[in-house]
Amino acid sequence: MQQPQLGQKIQEWRKAKGMTQEELVEKCNINVRTIQRIEAGEVMPRSYTVKTILEALEVSPSEVNHPENTEQSSDSYKDLLPWLKWAFVAGIIYLIFAMVESVMDIQLLAGEKFAFLGFGFFYAFLKLSILVLFTIFTLGFHKLGQLFSNLMLKVMAVMLIVWTAIVLVEDVVTYWLGIDLVSGLILRSLISGVLYVLFAAAFLQLSRSKGACYIVVGAIGIVTGICFMFVVFAIPGLIFLTVFEIALVVLIYQEYKKLSPDEFYNSFGKEPAIL
Fold first, then answer.
1. What fold does the segment set 5-66 form as a domain?
2. Which of 8, 149, 208, 238 is at 20 to 30 A from 74, Cα to Cα?
3. pTM, rounded to two decimals
4. What angle do CA 11, 209, 163 make, to 5 degrees?
5. In the chain, where are the structural domains located?
6. 234-260, pLDDT tens digit by residue?
7. What is the DSSP string of 144-199?
């Protein structure tokens, strides 16, 4: 691959990793001005320099040897942007609905009755809405897992969606049948804890290349999962879960901004940016 395409691809890979030029310099021990000139397409680097940069970015040399991958990568980023945008919007609405749901569930568990007409249908509608919103929100992370080639993130995102669907359907059926749910809460807490620990671990896996934000999200998720697994800390776990989900919304927003149209086109050299 020749310049300026090589420089544009290096810039794209660097931004996809969430790295600044200074961070790339630290990993490959190349002068920052050299990195700037390579990304701007001003110079053609030696093969050794290219190899060093690719190793720092964890990119296979075959990506450079096959120009058609550039077009494929372009398409993958374009396809990802709508997913991230709708995941972010769904995440915000989901958090609002989840807070309403929590208040209702706590009151129901306490034995309180809602007297207004049609509450059962409203309760079922609320649960269904939460499932749809949570699915869209969590699929955003499944797509990030595909982009970053992280199998754990992809699998655990799907597992969380399936488990959440089971829990929400159970809530509705339990309400309509008038079954006591307290005895099943312990098993629900244990399974939720294991799933959240594994889901959070995927972010810690990515933190080496993606930075501090992924470490924070992963750490909060691990604490959340552990609280649920110990059951007696399930109530604090609900608080940590809320913080974890807010952090996930922020992470989705940050990834969208990195890959938003302006950033995307800059990364392909439409407006070369020297940081």
1. 434 Repressor (Amino-terminal Domain) (1.10.260)
2. 208
3. 0.70
4. 120
5. 5-66, 77-259
6. 889 999 999 999 999 999 998 888 776
7. HHHHTT-HHHHHHHHHHHHHHHHHHHHHHHHHHHT---GGGHHHHHHHHHHHHHHH
